[in-house]
């Protein structure tokens, strides 16, 4: 399958690209600095600036079966990247008839009543941006979406085992998140689902199959 990854130079994206290629997919890797992406037989870097118009973006993001949105501004450009940049990519998907859309998001992005938790205090502006982007995806598009809400990201070797939704904990290795994102393509039962994840005891594919 040919897929497009928006935000392909991030930490999670690096694992995602490797995992998608390992599964036999061809990846168009979109980033503001595509020269940072290693070219291979299965990875084609392209310039992607989320400040561009939808019409311009649609000329770059086409002829693929799925879009991943894993771009993030690290709180430097929340409105134009994390919020409206995501919305523009959804609009591109609909314009170019790309039905599958997988979004990396934040734990509790759609439940603002949880944001008064002290553990989330530093993420308030980020969660607000993700709230509007995720709401648009669920309620304003007809895309076959999956929203993966990751709890706090940590470095370290992944275990390839996760916990989902009510069983999820507070931390994710970056590797586990990237691998889980890649595996979502193999599980149509995750379409139209908002899934919270953390590291846990269940193998990734087994956990996703049980959604």
TrEMBL record:
Against Gene3D superfamilies, the record matches this protein to: NAD(P)-binding Rossmann-like Domain
Which superkingdom, per the lineage? Bacteria
Q: Which InterPro entries match?
A: NAD(P)-bd_dom, NAD(P)-bd_dom_sf
Entry coiled-coil feature ranges: none
Ranges for the NAD(P)-binding domain?
7-187
* Name this protein carries in UniProt: SDR family oxidoreductase
**From what organism does this protein derive?**
Leuconostoc lactis
According to the entry, what is the taxonomic lineage of the organism? Bacteria, Bacillati, Bacillota, Bacilli, Lactobacillales
